[in-house]
Design brief:
It is a single chain. Helix content is 17%, strand content 24%. It is α+β, with helices and mostly antiparallel strands and 119 residues long. The longest helix is centred in the first third of the chain and has 12 residues. The chain starts with 9 loop residues before the first strand and ends in a 20-residue tail after the last helix.
Amino acid sequence: MLGDISKAEAVWIACGYTDMRKSIDGLAAYVQQAFGLDPMSNTVFLFCGHKSDRLKALYWEGDGFILLYKRLEGGGRYQWPRSPAEAKKLTWQQLRWLLEGLKVEQKTALSKVEKNLVI
């Protein structure tokens, strides 16, 4: 299915700034060279530029790459982590937060409770 990223096993974001003029080949090379990750793995890779109002998603579907591009309107901005030259693995919940305009690290998020509770 064209662009069905829900089948991805992982989501990685390129923290910092990415040159948004890069195409599929440039982004795939960046994933491999800068982070040592396999761009042809079952992973979504996300990139954001200086303006923080647009992002690109690169995903290998098994027979070719999908490049998704989103530009926010109305002055919206992504709360993108800006640690230079770093890739960060996200959970699907963190991806939802990011796409909703929230930071990927939420201080008030509930953490999972261990099952070994003594009452």
